[in-house]
Design a protein that fits this description.
Helix content: 25-40%
Largest sheet: 7 strands, mixed
Strand order of the largest sheet: 1-5-6-10-9-8-7
Order of helices and strands: HHHHHHEEHEEHEEHEEEHEHH
Bound molecules: phenylalanine
Shape: elongated
Distance between the termini: 58 Å
Radius of gyration: 36 Å
Length: about 350
């Protein structure tokens, strides 16, 4: 019986039907009441009980195969006909469009925000096209002071006031301080622009998250603890931090923060240039002049600020060697990150 089933299967596999009549003929020959498959079903009654399961299964398979072949021929025929409606197969699954992934900079920016949100910071945003006051003057950069050269600026117009692309999101901090009395606890994410030659290590635009906390009795110790908690959550619980004295016009004292190099565990390697430390952000206590120029009394309030580059943090997390890859929109590169989390 098994032999007979196999023979029938081969027969059907090699059969061809190119006209509706031929297809009908095939159907009658195999699937009708007097067809070959029905005949097998009739013989099935005489199959010994112990083989019933195996043979029953084979007959079912054959029946499914024949039905599929005949439907295939029918489909081919209707595809060739000029009745448009017959060409649309509503049961076919749709084209599998690949799902997009989040940009690595968005992933890291959201991580940074999530960590600070957990410590009570809210998000503040502001314009990318700014005036001199919000980017420089209010932040204690006197006119013609060499500190302005620290951030090469794209100017849009110079009269009647300087209009420019913001070089840091500290401008958002100014805008919030002008409008709000402390306590203020914000992070300012956003894109910033600097007039730099584009290379693997520098770009004319990048992204920052800056932070500001102003209240009564805020001290440098508060700043250090918040940054330590951030570093541990971002880079792992064994991460150490160190603060090196630095200079920013808007903070006094100012510092740059390094974290222990997680590639070599602080022993020193090519990535950290043998030092065991990598720089991740700038910070300090908000200069009383800045508070004054924004209408906050420095005799009553004090605060700290910090600012970090999202590209820098992303490089440290994912070791992207060339900054330009972040803005080339190569989907093969972009698709690598969602799964890297
Ligand atoms: N605004 C600084 C920069 O863009 C970073 C910074 C912010 C430093 C706040 C200290 C305090 O380089």
């Amino acid at each position: 019986m098994i032999e007979k089933i196999n023979r029938l299967k081969e027969e059907v596999a090699s059969a061809v039907a190119t006209t509706p009549e031929a297809v009908e003929e095939l159907r009658i020959k195999y699937l009708s009441k007097k067809g070959a498959v029905s005949a097998l079903m009739a013989d099935f009654r005489n199959v010994p009980a112990e083989s019933k399961k195996e043979i029953g299964q084979k007959i079912n398979e054959l029946k499914a195969f024949v039905t599929e072949r005949i439907n295939g021929f029918k489909e081919q025929l209707s595809a060739g006909c000029d009745d448009e409606a017959a060409l649309i197969d509503l049961t076919r699954s749709s084209t599998p469009y690949p799902v997009g992934s989040r940009h690595p900079l968005s992933i890291v920016k959201d991580d940074i925000i999530r960590i600070f949100a957990g410590m009570g910071f809210t998000i503040a945003e502001g314009p990318e096209i700014e005036d001199d006051w919000h980017v420089f003057s209010s932040l204690n950069f006197p006119a013609d002071h060499p500190a302005r050269d620290m951030q090469d600026t794209f100017f849009i117009s110079r009269t009647p006031v300087d209009v420019l692309l913001r070089t840091h999101t500290s401008s958002v901090q100014t805008r919030v301080m002008e409008k709000t009395q402390p306590p203020i606890r914000i992070v300012c994410p956003g894109r910033v622009y600097r007039n730099e030659a584009i290379s693997a290590r520098a770009h004319c635009f990048f992204h920052q998250v800056e932070g500001l906390y102003i209240d009564k009795n805020v001290s440098f110790a508060d700043l250090k603890q918040v940054l330590l908690s951030f570093a541990k959550e971002m880079f792992g619980p064994d991460t150490k931090i160190r603060l090196r004295p630095s200079y920013f016009p808007f903070t006094e004292p100012s510092a740059e923060m390094d974290i222990s190099c997680d590639l070599c565990g602080g022993k020193g390697c090519a990535f950290c240039k043998g030092t065991g430390w990598v720089e991740i952000l700038g910070c300090g206590m908000v200069d009383p002049n800045v508070l004054k120029s924004c209408g906050i009394d420095p005799e009553v309030y004090s605060g700290y600020a910090f600012g970090m580059g999202v590209e820098r943090i992303t490089n440290l997390k994912y070791r992207v060697k060339d900054l330009r890859m972040f803005s080339e929109n190569d989907v093969r590169f972009l698709a690598e990150f969602e799964s890297a989390r």
